[in-house]
Specification:
It is built from nine helices and four strands. It is of the alpha+beta class. It folds into two domains: 4-75, 3-Layer(aba) Sandwich (Glutaredoxin), CATH 3.40.30.10; 85-216, Up-down Bundle (Glutathione S-transferase Yfyf (Class Pi), Chain A, domain 2). It has a four-stranded mixed β-sheet with strand order 2-1-3-4, covered by helices on one side. It is globular, with a radius of gyration of 17 Å. The chain starts with a strand and ends with a helix. Bound molecules: glutathione. Glutathione (GSH) binds at residues 11, 13, 35-36, 49-52, 63-65, 99. It comes from Halopseudomonas salina. It holds the Pfam family GST_C_3. Residues 84-215 form the GST C-terminal domain.
């Protein structure tokens, strides 16, 4: 059976894997599974019901970081984990930082409150969004800026899964009108622009923008 990716296209974790699949030119099918409306069969692939998940032959895997590492090891291609054990460990740390620390505020607060809550018929908690933007996100963006250290990517001139993971979170904020301040975080802003210009990501964005517009107009 061909590799199949499950998930919805506005999830930053699904986007992360889609970018990787494109960067590493890995052939796959994509089955749309919406969070919160997962069919029963999906829990056999992703026991917690979360997206993304993959099935590759008999192997069923959930969690974007676990999936990303599996794809790297199973399919080869240009490495997204640097060249040394130390680079790979640093990349995994930054990926984890994006997936858990940045995601908590960028996606699960700013994006969820501005986009998902109104879709469910709820009001945006503007106070939670304001606190995320003014208190929680700046120290995280400052840290990532220090880690970039004026370089094009976290590993210098070599793109890695860390750049993909951080960018994926920033895109969810951009989808609801919150572009990071380029005067305050110029390196991160440039990273976002540099990543957005890559075909692995630019090819995904039109469909995401269309879906945002369609669902937003309902
Ligand atoms: N750490 C996980 C996070 C995945 C995650 O939280 N996905 C969200 C959508 S963005 C989800 O599936 N939510 C539905 C749920 O928790 O039931 C990963 O990297 O894959």
């Amino acid at each position: 059976m061909a590799l199949t990716l499950y998930g919805a296209i506005l999830s930053p974790f699904v986007r992360k894997i889609r970018i990787q699949l494109a960067e590493q030119a890995i052939a796959h099918d994509h089955v749309i599974v919406a969070p919160m409306r997962q069919p029963d069969w999906y829990f056999d692939i992703s026991p917690l019901g979360r997206i993304p998940a993959i099935q590759d032959g008999d192997l069923k895997l959930a969690d974007s970081a676990v999936i990303a590492q599996y794809l790297e090891e199973a399919y080869g291609g240009p490495s997204l984990y640097g060249e040394t054990a130390a680079e790979a460990a640093r990349v995994r740390w930054l990926e984890k930082y994006a997936d858990y620390e940045l995601a908590a505020h960028a996606t699960f607060t700013v994006f969820a409150e501005r986009f998902l809550e109104p879709l469910k018929g709820n009001r945006t908690n503007e106070q939670a969004v304001a606190t995320a933007l003014s208190d929680h996100l700046p120290p995280l963006l400052d840290y990532l800026t220090r880690e970039l250290n004026g370089k094009a990517f976290f590993l210098g001139d070599r793109m890695s899964i860390a750049d993909i993971a951080v960018t994926s979170q920033l895109i969810n904020m951009a989808h609801v009108g919150e572009l990071i301040d380029e005067d305050r975080w110029p390196c991160l802003s440039s990273l976002l622009a540099r990543m957005t210009a890559r075909s692995s990501l630019s090819s995904l964005l039109p469909a995401e923008h269309q879906l945002i517009a369609k669902l937003g107009n309902r």
